[in-house]
Amino acid sequence: MSYKEQLDYSRMPVHVAVIMDGNGRWAKEKGLPRTAGHQQGVETVKKITEEATRLGIKYLTLYTFSTENWNRPSDEIAALMGLILTNLEEEIFMKNNVRFRVIGNMERLPENVRERLKLCMERTAGNDKMTMVIALSYSSRWELTDTFRRLAVHVKEGRLEPEAITEELVDSHLQTDFMPDPDLLIRTGGELRISNYLLWQCAYSEFYFCDTFWPDFDEKELHKAIVDFQSRERRYGKTSEQVAIK
Question: Are 178 and 101 in contact (CB under 8 A)?
Fold first, then answer.
């Protein structure tokens, strides 16, 4: 039985987050420049976005470029920004009824990239089958620091009492305030860490790590990850007996 045949469509994760790792190593194994790996990775993004939409997943968040990635060689950064400009195709989002969103420090992006992203968000704002989010110039520590700094300003100005700062209030000031926390976090490429990605939001996410490099991650690999997710008992701190009582 294939992994797709094993899927339980009544227990699909609502939100899947992905750390798309392995583009550079994929290219190196094939004797290609790193940029070729990133280009092939873009093709995987298109395939997985369409398949996630077909499966009924409501939110797909892809770790595209971290704040730490700004330390990479300038030619690689320029190539990555160019890929965003040339591959951000609204037709794909419109055809699949997908809304496009961005989380991250967009002020650090080149102006032409920033404007292109904003335009795509505006044009797809009415789509409602799935929301595809890219985490671009993003890191969780940056996000949390920015959130706490803004809340501190409210306290300093007398608009917020410290006692009023709750988890719900923090949630509402995060970059991800428009979507639920990830149910499933997938990391490709064989590394076993989450690399400063959605640290607050992944408090109770199920983690799935695979050795497959992102350019080779296909629909079958996505199905496999979801089947594994559906085999787990999500207790959120409760006992199995408590979870069984609904």
Answer: yes
Q: What does DSSP say about strands 206-209 and 184-187: parallel, antiparallel, or unpaired?
A: parallel
Choice among 21, 127, 181, 183 that is catalytic: 21
DSSP state, 195? T
Helix (H, G, I), strand (E, B) or coil at 130: strand
User: For 163, phi and psi rounded to 5 degrees?
Assistant: -65, -20
Catalytic-labelled residue, pool 69, 87, 96, 105: 69
Task: Please give the DSSP secondary-structure letter assigned to residue 40.
Answer: H
Cα 75 to Cα 53: distance, rounded to the nearest angstrom: 34
| Residue 246: band (very low, low, confident or very high) from pLDDT cuts 50, 70, 90 | low
The string of pLDDT tens digits covering residues 118-165 is: 999 999 999 999 999 999 999 999 999 999 999 999 999 999 999 999
Position 244 pLDDT exceeds 80: no
**21 catalytic residue (yes or no):** yes
DSSP SS3 for 98:
strand
Residue 235: band (very low, low, confident or very high) from pLDDT cuts 50, 70, 90: confident
69 is annotated as an active-site residue? yes
Residue 155 structure tokens: 């306290």
β-strand partners of 133: 61, 101
In sequence order, the 6+-apart residues with CB closer than 8 A to the CB of 158 are none
Alpha helices in the chain (DSSP H): 3-6, 23-29, 34-55, 74-87, 90-95, 111-123, 140-156, 167-173, 219-230, 240-244
